[in-house]
Amino acid sequence: MPTLSQQLLAKEAKYGASNYKPLDVMLCRGEGVWVWDLDGKRYLDCLSAYSAVNQGHCHPRILAALTEQASRLTLTSRAFHNDQLGLFYEELCTLTRSTRALPMNSGAEAVETALKVARKWAYQVKGVPADQAEIIVCDGNFHGRTLSVVSFSTDEPSRHGFGPFTSGFRIIPYGDADALEAAITRNTAAFLVEPIQGEAGVIIPPAGYLARARALCTEHDVLLILDEIQTGLGRTGALLAEEHEGIEADLTLIGKALSGGFYPVSAVLSHDAAMGVLKPGEHGSTFGGNPLACAVSRMALKVLVEEGMIENSARMGRRLQDGLAAIQTGVVREVRGRGLMIAIELDPAAGGARRFCEHLRDQGILCKETHTNTLRVTPPLVIDTDTVDWALDRFSRVLSAA
């Protein structure tokens, strides 16, 4: 007789699309930094749903906000006002020092929104000739899965078989400010970049890169768009990763942890000059800015700040990164990161990161590989010292055994 896990896996295989290859574990419950499978085995979540559960699984204050709002009003569309949207705007803009916010649902929707805003701004404000606006992006980028976004991806599996692609994008090397300067023309509308490339393997640009990018964009009247969907909301030990270089973007994209993992919520943050180009009927979303999303996000932001999760990310990130770097083994080429956004780069001769994820799973830690030889280590921001040390012992066992 197949186990319940086996029965559920068979249903996924029979009825689901085959666009994912999950690690072989069937989860059914989560609390804080921990998740449990159907057999009752506990695991430390070191992926945090790609940084969507920065506040930890099933945070009680966010759960209470969700259930309270769900019992009153969940959806109005933007055809009518609701009593949560204005409060959400005010609290989000005050916290992030933004002037305007536009709520959407997924991170990819936020990216698409920013691309539309940048193009419209280029035509209406900068004076770029119609349909000639260009947006500069970086190789190794990951900004989502929509057709326009994969049009400027350099990851071949993301592009193969999906053409023809959207034009109007120019790709430059990541972390190369000289390449950015050379790519800017009078038709350049925006530069879209991740402060730290997440899916590429936690790639951190050279010090001063973002500051120079900001200066170049200002000099040439180009919008700087920072995709902080993974790096934002405490993940790197700051509210936004832009703070590490003391800059402010023209448009900042946030999502994932904006709802603490309870609900799909994203937002585009901007100033009046950029966001002001949108007029009624030109862009929107049925679910964007709905009262349930706003109530959940308001509480997700409150607990992030009030419970010191951002500061904890910086402290625990240093402890975890230093501990991983101290593990004596020949299979590790590099440990890099900022805050609790960490990667372990493995020697290609070690046989790939996937098998290490499987061994770590057996030790009670859930990680995810990326780009074959990289392990991402991104636990919820509520992790404590004892749990970090517990995890380091398990990482040492697995990496040393290799």
Tally the structural domains: 2
Instruction: Give the rounded overall mean pLDDT.
Output: 97
Strand order of the largest sheet: 4-10-9-8-7-5-6
Instruction: Kindly report how far apart the N and C termini lie.
Output: 35 Å
What CATH calls the topology of the largest domain is Aspartate Aminotransferase, domain 2
**% residues in beta strands:** 15-25%
Structural class: alpha/beta
Beta strand count: 15
Number of H/I helices: 14
Radius of gyration: 21 Å
Order of helices and strands: HEEEHHHEHEHHEHEHEEEHHHEEHEEEH
| Low confidence ranges | none
CATH architectural label of the largest domain: 3-Layer(aba) Sandwich
Helical amount:
25-40%
CATH superfamily of the largest domain: Type I PLP-dependent aspartate aminotransferase-like (Major domain)
Which outline best applies?
globular
CATH class categorisation of the largest domain:
Alpha Beta
Largest sheet: 7 strands, mixed
What features would you highlight for this structure?
402 residues; alpha/beta; Aspartate Aminotransferase, domain 1; Aspartate Aminotransferase, domain 2; 2 domains; seven-stranded mixed β-sheet; four-stranded mixed β-sheet; 14 helices; 15 strands; 17% strand
Tell me what the structure shows.
Pathway: Amino-acid biosynthesis; L-proline biosynthesis; L-glutamate 5-semialdehyde from L-ornithine: step 1/1. Keywords: Aminotransferase, Pyridoxal phosphate, Transferase. The protein is α/β, with parallel strands linked by helices and 402 residues long. The protein has two domains: 4-58 and 308-401, Alpha-Beta Complex (Aspartate Aminotransferase, domain 1); 73-306, Type I PLP-dependent aspartate aminotransferase-like (Major domain) (Aspartate Aminotransferase, domain 2). Helix content is 37%, strand content 17%. It is built from 14 helices and 15 strands. The protein has helices at residues 4-15, 48-51, 60-70, 85-96, 107-126, 147-151, 156-159, 177-183, 209-219, 272-275, 291-306, 309-325, 353-362, 385-401, and strands at residues 27-31, 34-37, 42-45, 100-104, 134-138, 169-172, 188-193, 223-227, 251-254, 266-270, 332-338, 341-346, 365-366, 368-370, 374-377. A seven-stranded mixed β-sheet has the order 4-10-9-8-7-5-6, with helices on both faces. A hairpin with a 2-residue loop joins strand 1 and strand 2 (34-37). Helix 3 (60-70) packs antiparallel against helix 11 (291-306), helix 4 packs parallel to helix 11 and helix 12 (309-325) runs parallel beside helix 14. The two termini are 35 Å apart. 47% of the residues are buried.
